[in-house]
Amino acid sequence: MSYSAWIILTACLVGATSGLIGVFLILRKMAMMADAISHTVLLGIVIAFLITRELSGPHMLIGAIIAGLVTAFLVQWLHSLNIEQHASMGIVFTTLFAIGVILIATYVGNAHLDVKHALMGEITFIPWETMTLPFLGDVPVATAMLGFAFIIVLFFITAFYKEWKITSFDPALAASLGIPVIVMHYVFMSLVSVTTVAAFDAVGAIMVVAMLITPAAAAYLWTDKLSIMLVISGSFGIISAVLGYFIATWIDTSISGSMALATGILFIISFIFSPKHGLVSKFVKPATAKIMTQDG
């Protein structure tokens, strides 16, 4: 594959994986949790590096997952102390992220692990760091990680589709049916963490929030059926990735920033033209009803 093709494929994997996870973040009213985890995984990555002194390997993923679970646990614990949930998220993620930044500045030194890279990503460098996979040959490491993350997310969503659906819409009913709601919650937080750390090299912590939330929010405007919403959200993520890449090459600017811009463009289009909740339909339906009433 060409240099550009690897970048586009990597970006599409970010969009598809984030789009699937984002639907459940929206349905569970946990959009801010994506922002929290996308920042606090930095602490897990830094601690994993300080322990192993290596910038790649499964320990990075493990550190990020642990950081994501710690974030979810602390948010839930503060919320149980009657602190409003969004305030709990703000307290936890700013504190843990600040610790990660301090550790980078104090102990990491000259290693290629910096705050700017963690926040913004560097998708243009991805095709240069490769690994050899059976039947596939040389594949960029970030692309392989994102492909692995996509398979994991798709497997868990497919295998436990009914459980995710019930726990997202009615946790009390799920508990009464014997579904382990707390376990499902932390499994979901693990999936968010896996998605976030896999997307770090591609788009960074800030831009992954846009990919997690905006395509799912746009899909929510088009349908009320969960399965269709998942397909639309994943598709919007892919379209945003491709559109963002071509916008970036057209005006010679940040690829990850252009991807985030593309998600915003798709959301605006959905907000205006979606058949159920769009602005146009809200104006057209009353006008049509009024005309029919007058004709009647």
From TrEMBL:
GO biological process assignments: response to zinc ion; transmembrane transport
Cellular-component GO terms for this entry: ATP-binding cassette (ABC) transporter complex
Membrane disposition: Multi-pass membrane protein
CDD domains for this protein: TM_ABC_iron-siderophores_like
Keyword Membrane: yes
Sequence similarity: Belongs to the ABC-3 integral membrane protein family.
Protein name: Manganese/zinc/iron transport system permease protein
